[in-house]
Task: inverse folding
């Protein structure tokens, strides 16, 4: 789980990706399901869990609370026995490693009526405040103090309430939903986030005995239940739509042809439409599989990132890579985060012509990108640089892989299986005259 600063990808571009790739479970769903599992006593079993650093961090968070867990990576499942919760603290050392662990706040307040959770602070892509999470919990009756960098939430009793979110925040919707599960009476979240991961969490909670309706719309209603109504369950996580979109981009970028399996195509409707407008072909071949291909130079498109069902911010950097060699000028407006164009300086170093003005990027398509040494600055920016390197002429190196390992399972193996020329090397193993083939 420690950051490995010595690893890098060596990527030689120009090979069209071909074959088929299977998409794993959704990172941004499974992390929340793991937190939700602490609401009930007994052993919950979650299937389709991707092998990611972020999953390990969340495991540490819930183990620290006294739960017993077993992570079977081979069969991609996690068992969480939350019969005994012996601590209500999520330490800074863990929360600072992964913001998503802040989701434990709502789950702990629900189950234990108390939580002491480190404030996550900002991150590379933006300020990422948690004020809506806190206001929502206060509306349910929690008394919240912020002291020494920690949120200390306490409630003698939680009571259902109406909560209106200024922005349909994914994390705030989830935290409030979790807190409301064991509250007394009805909670209504208005302007709630509508992401598929929210529906997955609601389905998980309902299977457990909770009463959540309206997930997937802007109006979610939770009827609080008593602890004895909840029971452990066996549940399968939805596929990762962002991983799917990343592989679709890689296939289109290299003008390849591949089948992307184990996906829910409806979760990618907006993204698919933009790819089609760019000139890619997308064919539904099974309810959970599509064939993607592209030939020739792509067309440009404009888009604004928006909460679901709009264009996903997590695929903005991927689309930028495609626009970097498209025929004409494309404009991207990033509306969710203050600083999510972290890939731009490195794409420019690969020959892209991108002008950035605050949250707008104007991308003038060039004929080709060329290789360069670049660095992943965050998860999605990092993955987009790998895609850019697969498309570029020559051999690139991508540093700071720990960002990519947070959210992409077996990334290089899956790309290699499609014919991509990518190797993970450890710089401490570089031999004279070239890179040592050995993967550590
Ligand atoms: N915001 C506030 N106050 C709040 C909450 C959010 O101002 O109390 C703002 C944020 O600063 C941000 C915007 O609202 O500008 C949207 O944030 P949101 O809360 O919706 O995002 P999140 O829950 O922190 C999740 C995903 C992100 C994804 C966003 C948007 C997880 C673990 N993370 O973050 O995924 O970009 O929703 O779809 O679910 C990623 O996977 O790479 C990633 C960053």
Result:
């Amino acid at each position: 789980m420690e950051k490995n600063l010595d690893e890098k990808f060596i990527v030689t571009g120009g090979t069209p990706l071909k074959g088929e790739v299977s998409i794993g479970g959704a990172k941004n769903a499974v992390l929340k399901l793991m937190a939700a599992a602490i609401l009930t006593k007994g052993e919950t079993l979650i299937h389709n869990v991707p092998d990611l650093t972020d999953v390990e961090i969340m495991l540490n968070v819930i183990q620290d609370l006294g739960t017993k867990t077993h992570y079977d990576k081979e069969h991609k499942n996690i068992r969480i026995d939350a019969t005994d919760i012996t601590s209500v603290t999520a330490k800074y050392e863990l929360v600072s490693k992964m913001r998503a662990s802040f989701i434990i706040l709502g789950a702990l307040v629900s189950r234990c009526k108390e939580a002491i959770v480190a404030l996550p602070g900002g991150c590379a892509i933006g300020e990422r405040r948690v004020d809506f999470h806190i206001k929502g919990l206060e509306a349910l009756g929690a008394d919240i103090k912020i002291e020494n960098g920690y949120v200390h939430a306490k409630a003698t009793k939680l009571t259902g309430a109406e909560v209106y979110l200024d922005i349909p925040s994914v994390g705030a919707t989830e935290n409030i939903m979790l807190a409301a599960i064991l509250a007394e009476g009805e909670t209504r979240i208005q302007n709630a986030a509508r992401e598929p991961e929210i529906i997955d969490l609601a389905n998980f909670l309902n299977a457990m005995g909770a009463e959540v309706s309206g997930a997937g719309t802007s109006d979610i209603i939770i009827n609080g239940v008593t602890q004895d109504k909840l029971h452990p369950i066996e549940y399968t996580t939805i596929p990762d739509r962002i991983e799917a979109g990343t592989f679709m981009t890689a296939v289109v970028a290299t003008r390849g042809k591949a089948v992307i399996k184990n996906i829910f195509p409806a979760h990618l409707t907006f993204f698919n439409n933009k790819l089609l407008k760019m000139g890619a072909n997308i064919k539904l071949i099974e309810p959970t599989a599509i064939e993607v291909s592209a030939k020739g130079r792509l067309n440009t498109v404009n888009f604004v990132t928006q909460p679901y069902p709009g264009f996903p911010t997590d695929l903005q950097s991927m689309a930028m890579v495609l626009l970097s060699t498209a025929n004409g000028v494309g404009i991207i407006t990033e509306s969710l985060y203050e600083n999510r164009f972290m890939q731009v300086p490195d794409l420019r170093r690969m020959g892209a012509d991108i002008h950035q003005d605050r949250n707008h990027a104007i991308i003038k398509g060039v004929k080709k990108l060329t290789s360069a040494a670049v660095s992943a600055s965050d998860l999605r920016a990092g993955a987009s640089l790998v895609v850019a390197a697969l498309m570029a002429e020559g051999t690139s190196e991508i540093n700071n892989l720990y960002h990519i390992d947070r959210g992409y399972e077996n990334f290089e193996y899956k790309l290699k299986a499609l014919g991509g020329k990518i190797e993970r090397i450890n710089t401490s193993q570089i031999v004279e005259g070239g890179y040592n083939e050995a993967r550590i």
The chain has two domains: 7-24+239-435, 27-236.
